[in-house]
Write a structure and sequence with these properties.
The protein is 37% helix and 18% strand. The chain has a six-stranded mixed β-sheet, with helices on both faces.
Length: 434
Amino acid sequence: MKKSEFKRRRTQLMKMMGKGTIAILPSASQVTRNRDVDFPFRQDSDFLYLTGFDEPDSVMVLIPGRKHGEYILFCREKDPEQETWHGRRAGQEGAVEDYGADDSFPIDDMDDILPGLLEGNDAIFYVMGRYAEFDQRLIGWVNHIKEQSRSGLHVPSEFVSLDYILHDMRLFKSREELKLMRKAAAISVIAHLRAMKLCRPGQYEYQIAAEFDHEFGRSGAQHAYPAIVGGGANGCILHYTENNQVLNDGDLLLIDSGCEVQGYASDITRTFPVNGKYSPAQRDIYNIVLAAQMAAIKKVKPGNQWNDPHNAAIRAITKGLTEIKLLKGNPAKLIKEQAYRKYYMHRTGHWLGLDVHDVGDYKVGDQWRLLEPGMVLTIEPGIYIPAHSKGVHRKWWDIGIRIEDDVLVTSTGCEVLTQALVKKPGEIEALMAG
Ligand code: GLY
Ligand code: MN
Ligand code: MN
């Protein structure tokens, strides 16, 4: 991502904040996994969006119109010994030279400097409630200014949610962001194709999961979320991540896995037969989910409401399930009663971006949001029929199917970013046979 893109975002945000305001945003912290071992560091998505700075222990400050510099970055000081053990740091010079900060101070000096920056502003834009410890520090600084108000210090009187404007900005993807999302999608597609080609009865779920580690790793990408690799009954567990069971001949395999590139996520699900051939019952359910997914994708276009794809999916699922008698009654009535929820209990998608479940409101007031060009969402209907489901013939048991693609709203309709990954049953079977 170019430096100018981050600057453009900060400028846009400051324009919306207006004069007499200050924005404060802490980075994510390094989290301990166990004695002397940390979890891989993942930057706070808002912080990454505005700074491109990938270090922990940092704080971004924006002060629109400040003469001595609008963008201040607090970060770790350079420290040869620490860097020998733990890796390179940008330091204050790097923050200015390489990341476009107007000024930078050591994070350890923040208590001395930040109150002075707060003073004189009316409103503080902040992410209250996200970082409990930082909340306390910030309130402490404000109270400290209050105590001195009698000596003429101007106390900020208002906390404003930074999320509110920032998350609306993040909802609309720029050309640069879409480039990264296309790249993430392309890598994930290759990984899913690899899994389909390599899958055999008798393998373990983790062996298939390892193909995703390999493909993402060799492409310089990371998992955007823990992979779900669920054979048979495990396909009916929505957030199954143990991935430790054997894959049986005759079962389906549901894989929900996507990588992120420079923080930008992809999110793909495919469900295919472990032995390469769908049984008639599996194919029946698969075709219902596929019809629902195609109907939902058709509804992704500017001017349609957020909920239109979901409504299209539940119509197709209800119709399909009545045709094979898993639901009985009048489809319109069944939809009203939400009878489909026995087999389809989640929603049809979510925004996608720097977070896999990305930010942005789904409603404006009490109305579903209208789709607009530049938004990216997933379309991911499914049907899940656990064994021993009441009144359900055993031929349907343990069929869990989800099909998920990533979809960009364009000016004329939509573009499926994950289009290159096969999803028709015949195409999947041909690929697995090849
Ligand atoms: N991978 C999480 C989801 O599909 O929402
Ligand atoms: Mn998803
Ligand atoms: Mn998913």
